[in-house]
Write a structure and sequence with these properties.
With 171 residues, the chain is α+β, with helices and mostly antiparallel strands. It is built from 6 helices and 5 strands, in the order ααββββαβααα. The N terminus is likely disordered.
Length: 171
């Protein structure tokens, strides 16, 4: 393995590859915030141009390290840098899983857009189905607000007094 593509540089490569269209949970700044920078990443393929990454977090357990979900993170899973055919996705997922450190326990909730986990099944991982509902909210904020019941609007107004929600800049 060349020093340019060594595991020590994979995290740096991931950070430099990050794009605005990635989900929040895959953003390096988010992973830094929820783990105090204690996260890592594997890539596929090990050499050459990266096609996929898999960020992960480890925690010390009495049986060794475990790969766990970071706090406040709904999902992680593979990040594909380009559209891949099904067979290439299989190869990428298999390669990413092969590159993970040996751990007696691995827990990851993958992005709902990853619809096929067969490569993980082939490697004897267990799967637990969790449902994610993605709701399309067409219309503007004012129209959505009008359609919310008055009881829910009051609960939202009350909550707004205790927290601040700001949209992060894209750049």
């Amino acid at each position: 393995m060349s020093s340019q593509n060594s595991p020590k540089n994979w995290k740096e490569e991931y950070i430099n590859s990050a794009r605005d269209d990635w989900y929040l949970y895959h953003q390096p700044y988010y992973l830094d915030a929820v783990t105090n920078g204690n996260w890592d990443v594997v890539r596929f393929p090990e050499e050459g141009q990266a096609k996929a990454f898999l960020p992960y977090v480890t925690r010390k357990e009495r049986d060794g390290n475990a790969i766990v979900m970071p706090p406040y993170t709904a999902f992680l899973g593979p990040v594909f840098l380009e559209d891949l055919s099904t067979s290439k996705q299989y190869a990428a997922i298999e390669g990413l899983l092969d590159n993970l450190p040996d751990c007696p326990f691995i827990e990851q909730r993958w992005n709902p857009s990853i619809e096929n986990w067969l490569p993980a099944y082939w490697k004897n991982f267990e799967q637990q189905t969790r449902y994610t509902y993605i709701i399309d909210c067409p219309g503007d904020e004012e129209q959505i607000w009008k359609e919310i019941s008055s009881k829910k609007r009051n609960a939202i107004r009350k909550a707004e007094k205790n927290l601040t929600i700001e949209e992060a800049p894209k750049d």
